[in-house]
Amino acid sequence: MGRFFLFTLLAWLTGNPLLALLIVIALALPGWLAGSRVALRLSRRVRALGEAGRLRRALEINPHDAKARVDLAAILVRQGKYREARAEVEPVFARVEDLPDANYCLGLCLLRDGEYERGRALVERALELSPRFAYGEPYLRLGDFRADRREWAQAAERYRQATAIYSSSVEAWYKLGRSLGELGHTEEARAALQEALTSYRTAPWYRRPDDRPWKRRAARLRRTL
């Protein structure tokens, strides 16, 4: 009702119903986009909770279903519940060690718990089993492992591999640019950071909330190089 009144008022003021309609749409669009982003995040969480609940019920019926435990662990990792994820996947790992997602989940949990070498080896094993697994995310985590140790050349190589698989990853381009900057490769670093900014501009709207922090870091770092 409020929008109809606004449309009527604008149509009377402008003398142009089409222009009035465009103004109403323009005013409503930011709220619609914000609401869509909230709805998308909420729907993801609801789906994850629903899937986790289904897997837990399946495990109550069949506690020996190793694949269900791996799937549950993957959801828990995405929720940041690394200890719970490790408790699910580690006891059954010997039965699923040929699955890339089992290696990746347990590897991330071990890295989080400070068992760096074993965790790194498992993440690398996941890539051996499936080089394009998870759109290159394992390469990002391996790059982070090297960057935390200031091993910038090895980190840059991992981030390059991530961008080769998922060329629109704002996070990967930013981290590659940072690594190259630390190595003193200024022009290459600026080019990578520009790719991060370009990838953000061309990303679909539902990706931008996740990408925005990396885009801001890329913009700040590029200004300093």
- Globular, elongated, flat, extended or rod-shaped: what is the shape? flat
Q: What structural class should be given to the helix and strand makeup?
A: mainly alpha
Looking at CATH, the homologous superfamily of the largest domain is Tetratricopeptide repeat domain
Q: How many individual domains? A: 2
Number of helices: 12
CATH architecture classification of the largest domain: Alpha Horseshoe
- How much strand content do the residues show? under 5%
Kindly report the oligomeric state of this protein. single chain
Largest sheet: none
E-strand count: 0
Give the terminus-to-terminus CA distance: 53 Å
Poorly predicted ranges (pLDDT <50, ≥5 residues)? 31-36
**Rg measurement, Å:** 23 Å
User: What is the C-level CATH assignment of the largest domain?
Assistant: Mainly Alpha
Mean pLDDT over the residues: 85
Structure description:
The structure is a single chain. By secondary structure, the chain is mainly α. The chain folds into two domains: 40-130, Serine Threonine Protein Phosphatase 5, Tetratricopeptide repeat; 136-225, Alpha Horseshoe (Serine Threonine Protein Phosphatase 5, Tetratricopeptide repeat). 81% of the residues lie in helices and 0% in strands. α3 packs antiparallel against α4 and α10 (170-182) runs parallel beside α12 (208-224). The protein is flat and about 60 Å long.
